[in-house]
Amino acid sequence: MSNNNDDGSFYALMAFLIFGGIAFVIWKFGQTFGLDFATSASVLGRLVVVGIAVVAALYFGSDSYGIGEYIGFSKIWPLLLGAFWWCWWPTLDYKAAQLVPSFLPDANVWWDEWYTKWGVLLGLVGGGYALKRWLDD
Questions:
Q1: Which domain holds residue 52?
Q2: Angle between helices 37-60 and 73-87 (to 10 degrees)
Q3: Is residue 2 part of a domain?
């Protein structure tokens, strides 16, 4: 038998503080950019994933791991730039929904259309690799 008097309240308090801190950061991010909580959480979640990819590219891109020629930051920075643009797509959707009157069901602003999002994405990635190739030569 154990004489453990811990009822788990410390862990509950820590979980509450951690989740409360995350919610506060999401809320402040949304207040800064004028977004609702769900959009802010989506954008921040995507930014965290891209940030982890940047750190992984910088960390594993060194020659000590032997895979730097494939995933080194200097090799994939245009993809990461395109991923950063992808992170902000929910913000464009939210802002476009705020601007278009609700009685126009098919109306959409040009900067929130699929061809603009994908065109900018292809321009960033393609232009980045063209610039990289031009600078490497």
A1: 9-136
A2: 180
A3: no
